[in-house]
Amino acid sequence: MAIRILLTELTIFSKLNPRAGCSISYICHDKKQGPAFKKGCPIKWSVCMKTLFSFILLALLPFTSLVAQKSIKDSVIFANLIYANYAMQFPGGDLGERFGMNSQLGAGYLLKTNTNWVFGIEGNFMFGDQVKSEGNILSLIETSDGNLIDMQGIYANYSFNERGFSWFFKTGKLIPVWGPNKNSGILFTLGAGYLQHKIYIEHRDKTAPQITDDYLKGYDELKRGFATNIFLGYLYLGNYNKVNFFAGLDVTMGFTGYVRPYSFNQISYNSGRFSDILTGIKVGWIIPVYRRSPKEFYFY
Description:
The chain is mainly beta.
């Protein structure tokens, strides 16, 4: 529309004339007679430059407006979502026979497209202090009252904990409902990756050689393997980029096996495959990175 109006008001066919400075042929709009072709009207170079600049600006304006009018409030936009998360997890399957409830801290990145598909990666660190059947972990080297004698002839100070980590490549879909914009709603993702966990024997004094250095590996029951992840929850991206979060149900299932070939506790070689399940409530805080401010319009 802007180009059509400009061409109606003033269509320029430049002809250089050294004496006149800028002698041109153009269509002049007359209020009484309408558009009429006139020739040879002398115009200064400054007028020519201003007219040319106006023509370029008006020609580009419609295209910049189409891009600039997209905002998070009224459009589905492309976004980079960087986040940190926490989860309270409850183990099941074979993992539930060894550990109780644990916590998980992690970080990740999601790429959200302008069709609300998401793709990303996530890594998590697991920790807890609920280790079941502690009495049989070091039973062969403990005293009758369940203690270890260190090199000084006194009871060693140690404790049993859970440690582990996981990472996943993730993909999923955002369904825009119950939110302030079309970029918030129900988030469903599937992930495939890796799970590892073990018994962590914490012995800070290092005075009992039975549970230091390589000897620890005979008791930690380290397992790892392929894992899958499912997340179903709600993702919120605020219109003003101040509050951005997600929360929901997170389920991880790992198919693990022993890493250590031999168990000091069982006095036998390790073998077998295990199904480890972690079910938890996950919450996360998001730092979104947009191509433009989520509320402002920009004209270039």
